């Protein structure tokens, strides 16, 4: 570590100091979920309310953008004062797929910096015991060795296609270390790989790759046209089902006691190419038409293979939903909810 990194709390030997104990929190656990109406928020809501994932003595509140504009500090303070949370799962963010990121990197940087600063500061002001923020594997350096792990976040610039979003998310890690160093706050973050599932944004222009493919295949099937996949189909991704991620979020909130982030992902062996993902969508929807690859469109980062070794040290027996089953469930949900799904 450089002197400036050490001054900022990045000393490589400081890791042990960042292990925390929050198990002694007494009284009811009031959990506030920002971004509660999004893909991951809805999945957590499902696990807590419909699968019995909530525990006795826990109160859960799921905020949406209708409840407060988190880019505004006064509104953020007001909603935190109203609910007085003891714990926060921070999911709210300006998000979008590759092509939206390439268009408006400045918006992604500014809006997410405002949201994250307001949420973490308001949490600190009302005495929140633990915040778990959601990062993304796109924060990792573009030029790196694989698999990437939690120690490599700040080792170089992210991919230029979405540097605004990536740097804004990276700064949450800096934020968390600084709150710990200056105020003893136990705020941490998780780094999921590509998330998909029911309640995703299935926008073709601005959504992520899998929901975009599902929507495109659905339309192509209806219109009897070819399915056009953007790019060459060769980039590789690890996909995590939103309900699996929700279960892991609950574990992190209750059990994971480090300020250092943790990658939440399927294993390296479960990485699939975009072509394999497209083939799985075709199978799940029963699409009978031709599949065409438009190589004039950008591929984005070729791969960002992440190691889930740290997660497996904590939870060696965690069972992920098989990709094809999770994808089939997502496609079935999209078809059944086509009229009301975000798209």
From TrEMBL:
InterPro entries in the record: Epimerase_deHydtase (IPR001509), GDP_fucose/colitose_synth (IPR028614), NAD(P)-bd_dom_sf (IPR036291)
One GO molecular-function entry: GDP-L-fucose synthase activity
EC number: 1.1.1.271
BP-aspect Gene Ontology terms: 'de novo' GDP-L-fucose biosynthetic process
Pfam families: Epimerase
Pathway annotation from the record: Nucleotide-sugar biosynthesis; GDP-L-fucose biosynthesis via de novo pathway; GDP-L-fucose from GDP-alpha-D-mannose: step 2/2
Keywords recorded for this protein, A-Z: Isomerase, NADP, Oxidoreductase
Start and end residues of each NAD-dependent epimerase/dehydratase domain: 31-267
Domain of life per record: Eukaryota
Gene3D superfamilies: NAD(P)-binding Rossmann-like Domain, UDP-galactose 4-epimerase, domain 1
Family in the record: Belongs to the NAD(P)-dependent epimerase/dehydratase family. Fucose synthase subfamily.
Function statement: Catalyzes the two-step NADP-dependent conversion of GDP-4-dehydro-6-deoxy-D-mannose to GDP-fucose, involving an epimerase and a reductase reaction.
Protein name (Swiss-Prot/TrEMBL): GDP-L-fucose synthase
């Amino acid at each position: 570590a450089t002197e400036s990194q050490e001054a900022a709390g990045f000393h490589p030997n400081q890791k042990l100091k960042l292990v925390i104990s929050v198990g002694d929190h007494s009284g009811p656990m009031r959990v506030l979920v920002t971004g509660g109406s999004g893909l991951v928020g809805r999945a957590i809501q499902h696990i807590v309310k419909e699968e019995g994932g909530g525990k006795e003595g826990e109160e859960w509140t799921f905020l949406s953008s209708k409840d407060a504009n988190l880019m505004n500090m006064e509104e953020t303070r007001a909603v935190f004062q109203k609910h007085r949370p003891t714990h926060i799962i921070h999911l709210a963010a300006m998000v979008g797929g590759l092509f939206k990121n390439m268009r408006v990197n400045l918006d992604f940087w500014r809006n997410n910096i405002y949201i994250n600063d307001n949420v973490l500061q308001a949490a600190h002001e009302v005495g929140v015991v633990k915040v778990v923020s959601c990062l993304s594997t796109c924060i990792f350096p573009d030029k790196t060795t694989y698999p990437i792990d939690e120690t490599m976040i700040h080792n170089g610039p992210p991919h230029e296609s979405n540097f605004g979003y990536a740097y804004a998310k990276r700064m949450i890690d800096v934020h968390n270390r600084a709150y710990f160093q200056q105020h003893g706050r136990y705020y941490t973050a998780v780094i999921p790989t590509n998330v998909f599932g029911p309640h995703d944004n299935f926008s073709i222009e601005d959504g992520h790759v899998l929901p975009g493919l599902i929507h495109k295949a659905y339309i192509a099937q209806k219109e009897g046209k070819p399915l056009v996949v953007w790019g060459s189909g060769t980039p590789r991704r690890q996909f995590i089902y939103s309900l699996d991620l929700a279960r892991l979020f609950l574990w992190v909130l209750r059990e994971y006691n480090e300020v250092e982030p943790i990658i939440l992902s399927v294993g390296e062996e479960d990485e699939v190419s975009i072509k394999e993902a497209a083939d799985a969508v075709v199978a799940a929807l029963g699409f009978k038409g031709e599949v065409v690859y438009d190589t004039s469109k950008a591929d984005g980062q070729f791969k960002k293979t992440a190691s889930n070794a740290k997660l497996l040290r904590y939870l060696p027996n965690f069972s992920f939903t098989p990709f094809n089953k999770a994808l089939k469930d997502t496609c079935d949900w999209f078809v059944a909810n086509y009229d009301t799904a975000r798209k």
